[in-house]
Structures are given as C-alpha cells and as structure tokens.
Amino acid sequence: MTETNNRKLLQGNQATALGALAAGCRFFAGYPITPSTEIAETMALELPKVGGRFIQMEDEIASISAIIGASVAGAKSMTATSGPGFSLMQEGLGYAYMAEVPCVTVNVMRGGPSTGLPTKVAQADVMQAKWGTHGDYFPIVLCPSSVKDCFDITVKAFNLAEKYRNPVIVLSDEVIGHMREIVVLPDPSTLQLIERKKPNVPPEWYKHFQITADFTSPMASFGQGYRFHLTGLTHDERGFPTSNSETIAAKLDKLKLKIERHVDDIVECRQYQCEDANIVLFAYGSVARAARQAVIESRKKRLRVGLFQPVTLWPFPEEQLRRMTQKAKLVIVAELNQGQMIGDVRRVCKDKIRVIGLNRYDGELITPEQILNLIKEDH
Amino acid sequence: MADTIRPKKEKAAVEESLFTSGHRACAGCGEALGAKLVMDAAGPDTIVATSTGCLEVFSTPYPESAWRMPWIHSLFENSSAVASGVEVALKALGRKGNTKIIAQGGDGGTADIGIGCLSGMLERGHEILYVCYDNEAYMNTGVQRSGLTPFDAHTTTSPSGKISFGNQRPKKTLLDIAAAHNIPYAATASVAYPADLQRKVKKALATPGPTFIHLHVPCPLGWGYKAELTLEIARIAIDTGLFPLVEIEWGKVTRVRKITKDKKPVEEYLKPQSRFRHLFASEDGKKELAKIQAIADANIAKYGLV
C-alpha cells in the first residue's frame, strides 16, 4: 500500500479507535459520554467488519467489567470514557491490577470534578489515573498530543498491556480527541504487535500468577484446558486467596516489580531543544503543542528554552527528566489543572532547580503567548 | 390607613408554567413538553431531582433556569437516590408536610445506568414519583442506543447497514420492572394525551408510597422526523400498540387506553422516522416490519387493547 492511500483526515477519537483495531483489539464495551463517544461510535461501525464485537453497556461499571471478562476469555479489549465514567471504572480497574488482566482504558479528559465541563478541555485526571482506586498498584498511563499520537499510543497501550499483564490507561483530552489532522497511518502489517505470554507447561503445572524472572506470568485464557482461580482477593501464585503474610507481600512486590524493573522499556519521552536549555518547559497532551510553539518563538529571541514532553505520565519519567534538566535553572510545568504533575517534577528537581507552574483550569487551552509571557517575566 | 389600601388590580397575566419557556430545547421537543405538563400537574409545592441528560442541559443554560421550583441536578444514575435523601430528611426534620417530590431522568438515566438506584428507591418505599422521559436513545451525547431504544432503530452505536438492521434487542419492559416492585401505582403516559398524563401525575402524587410514570416523548432530532409531527408521532405510537397506555396498581393492570377504533399498522408509525428508513429499503426489511408488527400485536394481546 502506498503512503498516499493511508493519508486520512481524522479526528483524534477516530484515530484512537483505528489504533486499537490495528493493535488487534477485537472487543469493545462502552457507554456514551462526551467527549469520548466517537471512539465507541467508530468501534460500533468497524469492529463487526473485522470479526470483532462491540457491546454497549448499561454504565461504566459494566463497561470496565465486560472488558476484563473479554480479556480473560482471550480477546484484546478496550473501553473509552471521560471523567465521570472514569470515576465509576475505578473499582474495576483495581480488580484488573490485582487479577493482572491486560486491557486498555481511554479517558478523554474534560473539566471536573463531577459532571464538570462535558465539552471543554482539562488535564485534571492525571492523579486520578495514578491513584484513583484503592491500594498499592502501578498504572501505566500514556498521553497523546496529536491525532497521529492517538493511533500510535493506542497501539503502544495494547502492547504494554499484553506484555506486562496490566491495565493501561490512555489519557487523551477533549482537544486531542476532537481535533482533526491529516495523518498517514502505518500499514497494519508493519506494526510490531505484542501478544501476552502463553503457558508452555502442561495444564497440571500451570500457575496463573507464577512469579517469574520478569515478574509477569504467562496467561492462559478460559477454555484452553488450563484451570485457574481468578479473584480480587489477595492471592498466591495459583490465584487462591491467602492470609499468609509472606505470600501477600510477594504478590504486592510482584505487582510493583513487574513495572518498576521495566521502567526504561515502558517510559517514552520527547524532548525538543533541551540540551542547552536553561528554561525547560514540562508539558504533555494538548499543552505540549503550545509549549513547542513557545520554544520556537523563544529560540528566535535567542532564549535557551526547551520542551520536555512525557508521553508516559506514569510511571513518572524521573531519569529522563533529570537528564534533560541538567543545564536548567527553571522548569515551567504547564498543565490544564491546578497543579498535578508539578509535584513529581519538584520531587525530581529537588532544591537544585526552581519549578513553577503555569496552570489553566477554565476550560480553555494554555496558549504559546501565555508561556512566552511567563518566560519574559522571569528574565 | 393601612387596611384601606387595596392592591392594584394587575392585568391578567398569561399563567406562567412552572417549567417556563425560553429554555434551549429543539423545536418540537417532546421531552420539554412532557416536563411542562408534569410540573404544572404537580404544582409549585414540589421538589425536583433531575438526572444528567437533555432535559437537564437544555433547561439550565447559564445563567438561567427553566425550573420555578426547588430543583437539583444529580449525576447520571442517581436522581432517585438524591430524592430519597431529600424525602427522608424532610420527614426527619418535620418539614415534609404536603410537599411532593419528583425524581426524573431520561431513558438511559432510568433504564440503564440508573436502574439500580431506581430499584432501591421503589423498594424502600419512599414517597416519591419517578418520571422517566423516554425519547428512546442517548440524545444528549448524539443518539446512541439505550435499553429503551426500540427494535431495529438506527442509532450511532446500533448502526444499520449490510449486516444489521440497527438495534437488535427489543425495548426493555420498564413499566413491568417498576411494577414488579409491587408499588401502589405505575403507569405509562404520552405527551400525545396531555390531560391523561396530568391525571396520572396527580394520581401518582396523591398515592402514598413510591410511584412511577414511564412517559413517551418523541425526539425530532434523534428519530428523524419533522418537528411539527411530535404529537402525531406520539399518537401513532399508541395507536399501533407499540407504546400502550397502561396503569398498574399493586401489580395489577387497572386501566388501559383501548385502541379498538384507532388501530394502525406499524408502518404508519415507522415510515415518517428516518431511524427506521432502512426497513423500507429492501425486501429483507419487510421481514423486519413483520417482526415489529408482532411486537405491537403482543402488546395489544397482553393488555387487551382492542
């Protein structure tokens, strides 16, 4: 297929759906909610064409539960929602972390709390994506900043979910989800797709939560001859509930280590002119676009400004940020909330670098001018 | 002297509805008409909890409200739970008096995401009237199917095409679900018959205990018909047997609206609506029409409508 055939004018939400299909997603369960509904609508149209299934659920609690069930049955599965629905999904997400069920949840962020601003942009679910459900767990959270990103990052989300048997969250936002850009989609046959590890032992030896060298256990599906016990209760390697303190600690260590030991594999960051920058902009999602423009404008004025853009928000890209701020005297964290990622940026920069926030939470985007004005004020 | 001062005679004003005009509903909106009729039947001494949905959005654009009574927007699923709290607190504070409480939501907010909270409200026996405004899909988010979307209707999440005739499941029997809680009064109603609707609202509010009204409210935008046809569409839904008008008290059907003289084939209802257009485009569509006629006939037989 030639490149021109793959040139498409797409909305971010459509690209997310197409990315999921290209990654092998064959099951989608969802519930209508602005500004994510186009993902469900696209899946409703496209999934039957590739032999997949779309079902509309009665709410978001049911949606996250259905994709857990589908994943355990062996299908790559996804749901999509926005803030209020993401809140309802937290219980199900907790189960998926505990039972180590690979699945992808897209949250197209809108203003909150509660019903908030259904049609306006925000980035205020960043901490909810990390801490939304109770207990210790280690989410993988990815953040697109363009229509093409919506496609690529959704593919990556499925790969990471399958590789680490973990739920993966894609934090898109209203601007990214609804904007349209011309994109060239890759030929699906050229994509590198990762499938979950399958057991290679006789069924009687199989342990669904076996602690392996990389802490990720092979995963059998229902109906393949392997017996296993699945529960949200803290369990041993076979999946049975336990109150043995050593087993409990081993399970929670496993959840932690399978992510922590592979941070370098999971984390993706972008940097733009950070090498010599004494002012580093920290921005993600839709704000990263304005920040990049601010860097371009600043460089014209011979200001040494750079952009650090985490694509992986969680686990937090500590090492990468440290490397990219070696010459920095100031880090400006620009985000569409009252200051969420800035806490972790401060933790990494400690007292060595001044960290200030540029926050907007009125439903509008941060503009390059706002960033430039802040840079000017500081000079 | 003060007692000789008489109030000035005011010009007789047009009596204003408790659900005032000036809201942002589409032309021909059945739900707006329904809300106006329900509120005016309930009267001013009424507290209203409304779920997320079209009704909430078009009636409360900043900085205006169409509600001339105490009104609260709940979340999507829980107007019945919020109303439960209001009712119990008023009783506990000794302020309930004759104040009436209405919880309401759309078809999605009632039959899908809100059915758990509704069931709890009915089971606990609160003195609340729940009104479900059924426009048969999620209209606020752009026409996605709900549990009350009729069989074979096209929506954006039940698209019709080569491999599908649209929504593959029949409409949930919401009235039966509510009545199965053995509540004193459950009824269906339609904006096609305003007097009948208002009588039912008054009856429900005069009945002690939880009561329920399933109100059929056509949506020109989502169903794809001309805005001036709302009442006609609503009427034909009843005359075909697709939306029977029924009252159930303590689990027993006590009253139905007969359609003996008016009975119409389902095609008359389906044809003016673009959500059913695909059924008239092929030979296979005729088989589907027969299935929908069977649904209507089953309703007619179930409630003895002819």
CATH class of chain B: Alpha Beta
Helix and strand content put the structural class of chain B at alpha/beta
Oligomer: heterodimer
How far apart are the termini of chain A? Answer: 51 Å
- Morphology of chain B: globular
Poorly predicted regions of chain B are none
The total strand number of chain B stands at 10
Q: Report the CATH superfamily of chain B.
A: Thiamin diphosphate (ThDP)-binding fold, Pyr/PP domains
Proportion of β residues of chain A? 15-25%
How far apart are the first and last residues' alpha carbons of chain B, in Å? 68 Å
Strand order of the largest sheet of chain B: 2-1-3-4-8-7-9-10
Main pleated sheet of chain A: 8 strands, mixed
Radius of gyration of chain B: 20 Å
Can you count the helices of chain B? 11
- Biggest β-sheet description of chain B: 8 strands, mixed
Number of domains of chain A: 2
Strand content of chain B: 15-25%
CATH topology annotation of the largest domain in chain A: Rossmann fold
Whole-number count of domains of chain B? 1
The CATH homologous superfamily of the largest domain in chain A corresponds to: Thiamin diphosphate (ThDP)-binding fold, Pyr/PP domains
Q: What helical percentage do the residues of chain B reach?
A: 25-40%
